[in-house]
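Recall that a protein's primary structure is simply its ordered list of amino acids. Everything else, from secondary elements to tertiary packing, is in principle encoded there. The following example makes that idea concrete.
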Amino acid sequence: MSNNIPWKDYALKFWRQRALIDLFGIRLNVPVPIIVAILSVIIGGSLIRYWLYQGQWSPFVSEQYGYALEYPANFDMYVYGDGGYKGSIYIRSRFGSIWAPLDVIVYEKPMDKPDLEQVSVWGEEIINRHRGYNRSTLEEVEIGQGNYPALVRTYTKKIYFGRNLKIKVVYLATAKRAFALNFTVYEWNYSDQLVVIEHMLELL
């Protein structure tokens, strides 16, 4: 007697499967095909949005932390409060997409009349936590429409399976705040994403 189950039986078994999910504290027993359909709509909608808004830009202003920038309109935007994000109390916002190779994080720390050297000392603590290596020399530049003085460096971070991230970090100082802008890209995509990074810096 054959132990092979016809594909129709597999399909019927899949259709009858259910999973427990927690929705706002309420536990629901939901058919797995419905969960798959909902996830497909969400993922499909995200992909369509990514391609539809490619090449367009959206403005973002943080009145709470005193900074403004423009980011690719097909990126998702996440805003965090004083608690920060993922173990860092200094992360204020993040811009990226599961479809894009670039991820942008804005770090901010209150400081009284900081100079760029003080900002870079604080920012280097972030790099050390990331175990960054291959650090370039800190370079003095002017960025944004106001030609703001800034310090820039790149470094590398190992992730998994021998893959590396290349990160460009930009240090900025205002009267009461220190900022570090981190542009994170897979190392082999870095040169392709420089156009987006430089455009974001030009629009500051």
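The longest helix spans residues 32-52. The first strand starts at residue 18 and ends at 23.
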